[in-house]
Specification:
Elements: H1 9-17, H2 21-43, H3 46-63, H4 73-92, H5 116-120, H6 133-145, H7 149-161, H8 165-172, H9 176-198
Amino acid sequence: MPEDLSPTDEQLVEAMRRGDASAFRTLVTRHHDDLIRFLTRLVGDRTGAEDVFQETFLQIHISADTFDVTRRFRPWLFTIAANKGRDYLRKKGRRRAVELSAPVGGRGGGGRPASFVDLMEVDVPAPDAALDRAEQDRMVQEALESLQPTLKEILLLAYFQRLSYAQVADELGIPLGTVKSRLHAAVAQFARQWQRVSRDPRE
């Protein structure tokens, strides 16, 4: 089927409601990679991310009838995933919890100042990346783990959903000013932590 004729996420949810099992499988496949990346950053490990991914889509299946198909599916999916990730961390007893393209300092590829967006692109390293990819991923995760849970969550949601401030506010049910202040604080805190963990010990 040509790409431009593929059903939208919202159409797939409507098909699910009519009992089309293949529509559910399509949604799972379509969002798997992005959601796993998001959850791996949120909960801190791939195994936990896979568990939360399963819980998220179980909830999607159970709650499909409550979804407003006039709204976008992806923000709903990621909000449910964030809630499930929060529950997972709570059960495990772990305390994990501006523009995203703004430089955060530390060492980036090609001598450029690293940005949050650069660092979150975990799958496609720049050809001239100065850091070993696995080591950089470890440092990114260490910096994220130091953030308060609410700041970590909004930073990851904003990055992976690519939403505007107003859309984040709408999806999370919090005031616009709160979104702006939390995201600004999250980027600033991440920048400080990234500079700490990425500092060359020889300096």
